[in-house]
């Protein structure tokens, strides 16, 4: 039996979780969304100061549920992310590990997302992972924990970034994903014929910046920006993103002969994307796994799960291991 305490501070969520095998004993997330909304996006300096202010309180709450002496290893996200934010969680976890005389685990944030559809399981079956977040869009051939081959990624904006930028163009609040999804449920997805970036490129890469530009041009041509237009843009934009993600995921599965597709990352909260991929998988007899909504956006439970899998495979890290804001998956 292993018990892992994990800290996640890579962006604007401060999070601490404790996982004992498949039992989540504590899961605290303090979102800074309201703070950053006023700026229309995440301000790194503000984020790290908030992590520092909030983390002790979250750790106190966790200590009310689990004794620190019960922890076998302390994990923290070591990248990718905002340097000054990563440092807060990383230094705290290292300090706790040092004080307790227990191992430290440096966890890749992307690996946390990627493994989250398997949360609570002992074994990670070979599969294709589609990781869609605010900073990344990745198709990965996963053979086992730590055995990752990146098949494709975005050449410009990430899928979540595209949602956020389009929301900004439409005057919607940050983060844009949920706002665009809300608008899309009331809109007509056929009103605007937005480009499906790199759909026929023959590789497994993505491009979303042309789509964002197309939205900008379409809006410039509209005489008025009433709520119907905003909702129709949301629906048409979302349909384009979903179609491209479904098409490339199917190509990745076909190319590798995989039998399972697993979806994770903040954008996987999007119902249209989940439904689109589920339908595509059903039609093609592919098993579809998706992270639970509470595990999709940034949290420490997924870092604890990745930490547990690493700990059980004796993959601990040195206290000298530094954070890496540009850490790659493989
Ligand atoms: O994984 P995450 O919490 O943070 C990163 O690692 O980036 O993902 C955040 C991203 C944001 O871009 C946000 O707009 C997007 O996930 N997102 C959504 C939805 N909920 C969050 N995108 C589309 N539809 C949603 N419902
Ligand atoms: Zn994330």
Query: What ligands does this structure carry?
Result: 5'-O-[(R)-(carboxyoxy)(hydroxy)phosphoryl]adenosine, zinc ion
Strand order of the largest sheet: 3-2-1-4-5
The end-to-end span amounts to 29 Å
Order of SSEs, N→C?
A: EEEHHEHEHEEEHHHHEHEHH
| Helix-residue proportion | 40-55%
Shape: globular
Which ranges are low-confidence, i.e. pLDDT below 50, for 5 or more consecutive residues?
Answer: none
Q: Find the count of extended strands (DSSP E, 2+ residues).
A: 10
Strand content: 15-25%
Rg (C-alpha, Å): 20 Å
Tell me about the largest β-sheet: 5 strands, mixed
- DSSP helical segment count: 11
- Structural class based on helices, strands and sheet pairing: alpha/beta
Mean pLDDT: 96
Written overview of the protein:
The chain is of the alpha/beta class and 330 residues long. Helices cover 43% and strands 20% of the residues. The protein is built from 11 helices and 10 strands. A 5-stranded mixed beta sheet has the order 3-2-1-4-5, sandwiched between helices. A 5-stranded mixed beta sheet has the order 8-7-6-9-10, with helices on both faces. β6 (127-132) and β7 (137-144) form a beta hairpin. α4 (109-115) crosses α11, α5 (159-169) crosses α6 (176-185) and α5 runs parallel beside α7 (209-221). The longest helix has 30 residues, at 227-256. The chain is globular and about 65 Å long. It starts with a strand and ends in an 18-residue tail after the last helix. The model has no long low-confidence stretch (mean pLDDT 96).
């Amino acid at each position: 039996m292993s018990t892992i305490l994990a800290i996640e501070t890579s962006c604007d969520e401060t999070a601490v979780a404790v996982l004992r095998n498949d039992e989540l004993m504590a899961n605290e997330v303090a979102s800074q969304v309201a703070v950053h909304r006023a700026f229309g996006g995440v301000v790194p300096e503000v984020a790290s100061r908030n992590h520092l202010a909030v983390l002790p309180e979250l750790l106190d709450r966790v200590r009310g549920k689990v004794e620190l002496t019960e922890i076998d290893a302390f994990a923290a996200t070591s990248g990718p992310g905002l340097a000054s934010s990563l440092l807060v969680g990383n230094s705290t976890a290292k300090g706790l590990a040092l004080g307790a005389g227990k191992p430290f685990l440096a966890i890749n944030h992307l690996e946390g997302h990627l493994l989250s559809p398997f949360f609570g399981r002992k074994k990670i079956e070979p599969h294709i992972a589609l990781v869609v977040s605010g900073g990344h869009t990745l198709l990965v051939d996963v053979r086992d924990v730590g055995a990752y081959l990146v098949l494709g990624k975005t050449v410009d904006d990430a899928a979540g970034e595209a949602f956020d930028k389009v929301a900004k163009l439409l005057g919607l609040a940050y983060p844009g994903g949920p706002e665009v999804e809300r608008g899309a449920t009331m809109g007509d997805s056929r009103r605007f014929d937005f480009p499906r970036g790199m759909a026929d490129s023959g590789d497994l890469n993505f491009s979303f910046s042309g789509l964002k530009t197309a939205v900008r041009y379409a809006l410039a041509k509209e005489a008025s920006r009433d709520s119907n237009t905003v909702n129709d843009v949301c629906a048409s934009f979302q349909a384009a993103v979903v179609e491209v993600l479904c098409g490339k995921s199917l190509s990745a599965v076909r190319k590798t002969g995989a039998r399972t597709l697993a979806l994770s990352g903040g954008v996987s909260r999007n119902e249209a994307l989940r439904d689109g991929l589920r339908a595509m998988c059903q039609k093609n007899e592919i098993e579809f796994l998706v992270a639970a909504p509470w595990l999709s956006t940034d949290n420490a439970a997924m870092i604890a799960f990745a930490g547990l899998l690493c700990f059980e495979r004796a993959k601990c890290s040195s206290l000298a291991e530094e954070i890496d804001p540009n850490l790659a998956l493989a």
